[in-house]
Amino acid sequence: MRQKAPDFESNNSNEPEEIEQAGAICIRRSKTARPEVLLVGSRRNGRWGLPKDHIEDDEDSKSAAERGAFEEAHHRLG
Question: Which end of the chain, N or C, is more open, meaning fewer C-beta atoms within 10 Å of its C-beta?
Fold first, then answer.
């Protein structure tokens, strides 16, 4: 999933700067339990969402989504 997210902090105007982001739907399956979906909490507004990260200049959206999902899962599972 590719989206543009508003970024109000990077400029001094009231107009948001668009930042390209990519996200992933991460599902963990096991033979003994129901599938689980990875959700992350927003530090900014407290809502739940899918893991995502900004797209670096030298990568495609798939790579950015994989990196963001891995970083979130690694952070949560320690």
Answer: C
